[in-house]
């Protein structure tokens, strides 16, 4: 069940009506929990058992960790949580990848090995809910929160359907306190939630799927040499597609949560207006970047142990961040590019020490444009299914093809991608120092009504477009 389907609209309307019709807070939480399991079972019912198992492991580990009086016992329960969660994630997400690479290594040594056909199915959302349950155990171990006694409340935290399969990654310390007291229905909050859901669906169905995905799919799926203009158009199209797709999902999740009385943090803050890669990761997929910062980069030592260790830590974090997205070396290279850019940026900042001339508008625009170009180059490895496709595209983009590339996109497609890209970059730069809430607060009602109506109208025109969200595969 995906947000951009009629099935979800009916499901959400039924859940919303039942949820607010019942006065008992406990009964309303039961409805949400049942709806969340139903939402997940609609994809693959047997994997609900895996979700329950993951929930049970961390609920027990958290309680035992808090009750333990000896440090060794606390470490043992934390280790149990880490091994169990990362073990399940590793088996389902990286089992085939590990076997394939093991087979390749043996082949290099002259040994023929045929691995068994495991046909592992990746449970949707496992990367997201695994990180959520891990944050619960880690925060209890670090003394930052107490374990929740109610298994029902903890299960609802893990399975909360608006953000279950593609985030944002919500931490227990932020979500569980919201389940103590029943939220009251508020017309303004409901309207804002519905507006965000409309905006998210507009980003996904109209901008990502209708206007950009065609060019991106054509370019990344083409097997021959491409003309440079087409290669750049396809990459720009994907840069917009993945933003509108993922930000659209996050916006829908935040909006649906608000309709149910829950608040989730922002996951995007106009990332294509970033000046530098540090700024980019303060704007892109915030729930993942802050998770990696707090639970990996800082425990590794962060920047407290000298420049060399900081470089190693940055690269490790970004390599693992790339691998989190998918079991393929192309994702690792994507993470490596981001890691190296973060290291380069630190070096340049140390060299120029934020000199006044670097803060002028012209320099900031140039640095922002350079950041966007490198981000797009990194997207090539993220989207390409293999290194051959990625390197072929980069050769076409830099004019290094031995033969003339083929033009496969129509003039309309190129113009369409150009217009959306210019609009996207312009909007991000205009809004880079503000928030969507602030913009809406100072906009006249007639403008908001017109924008909302226009988004609804275009969604109706694009009904039936039910492509899955890209981040479902992660």
TrEMBL record:
Pfam families: MBOAT. Its main location: membrane. One of its GO terms (cellular component) is plasma membrane. One of its GO terms (molecular function) is acyltransferase activity. The chain crosses the membrane at residues 6-25, 37-56, 76-92, 154-173, 236-262, 306-325, 360-382, 388-409, 414-431. GO terms for biological process: alginic acid biosynthetic process. Keywords: Acyltransferase, Cell membrane, Membrane, Transferase, Transmembrane, Transmembrane helix. It is found in: Cell membrane. It is a multi-pass membrane protein. Belongs to the membrane-bound acyltransferase family. This is MBOAT family protein. It comes from Oleiharenicola lentus.
């Amino acid at each position: 069940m995906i947000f951009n389907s009629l099935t979800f609209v009916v499901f959400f309307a039924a859940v919303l009506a039942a949820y607010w019709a019942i006065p008992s807070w406990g009964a309303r939480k039961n409805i949400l929990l049942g709806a969340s399991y139903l939402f997940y079972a609609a994809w693959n019912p047997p994997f609900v058992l895996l979700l329950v198992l993951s929930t049970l492991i961390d609920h027990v580990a958290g309680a035992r960790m808090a009750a333990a009086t000896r440090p060794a016992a606390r470490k043992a329960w934390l280790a149990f949580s880490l091994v169990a969660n990362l073990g399940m994630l590793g088996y389902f997400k990286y089992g085939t990848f590990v076997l394939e690479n093991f087979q390749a290594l043996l082949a290099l040594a002259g040994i023929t090995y045929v691995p068994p056909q495991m046909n592992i199915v990746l449970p949707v959302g496992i990367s997201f809910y695994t990180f959520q349950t891990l944050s619960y155990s880690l925060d209890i171990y670090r003394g930052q929160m107490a374990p929740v006694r109610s298994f029902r409340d903890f299960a609802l935290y893990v399975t909360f359907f608006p953000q279950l399969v593609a985030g944002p990654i919500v931490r227990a310390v932020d979500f569980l306190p919201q389940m103590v007291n029943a939220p009251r229905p508020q017309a303004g909050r409901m309207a804002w939630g519905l507006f965000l859901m409309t905006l998210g669906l507009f980003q996904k169905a109209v901008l990502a799927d209708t206007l950009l995905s065609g060019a991106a799919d054509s370019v990344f799926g083409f097997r021959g040499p491409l003309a440079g203009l087409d290669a750049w158009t396809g990459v720009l199209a994907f840069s917009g597609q993945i933003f509108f797709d993922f930000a659209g999902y996050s916006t829908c999740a935040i909006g649906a949560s608000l309709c149910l009385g829950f608040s989730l943090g922002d996951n995007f803050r106009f990332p294509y207006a970033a000046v530098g890669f540090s700024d980019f990761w303060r704007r892109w997929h915030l729930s993942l970047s802050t998770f990696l910062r707090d639970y990996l980069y800082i425990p590794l030592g962060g920047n407290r142990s000298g420049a060399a260790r900081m470089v190693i830590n940055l690269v490790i974090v970004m390599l693992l961040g790339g691998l989190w997205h998918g079991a393929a070396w192309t994702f690792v290279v994507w993470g490596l590019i981001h890691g190296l850019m973060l290291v380069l940026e630190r070096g340049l900042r140390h060299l120029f020490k934020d000199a006044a001339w670097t803060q002028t508008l012209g320099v900031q625009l140039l640095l922002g444009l350079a950041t966007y170009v490198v981000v797009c180059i990194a997207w090539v490895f993220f989207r390409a299914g293999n290194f051959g496709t990625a390197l072929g595209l980069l050769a076409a983009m830099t004019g290094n093809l031995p033969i003339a590339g083929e033009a496969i996109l129509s003039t309309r497609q190129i113009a369409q991608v150009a217009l959306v890209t210019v609009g996207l970059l312009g909007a991000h730069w205009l809004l880079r120092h503000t928030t969507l809430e602030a913009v809406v607060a100072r906009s006249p009602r007639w403008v908001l009504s017109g924008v909302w109506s226009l988004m609804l109208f275009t969604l109706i025109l694009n009904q039936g477009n039910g492509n899955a969200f890209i981040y479902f595969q992660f």
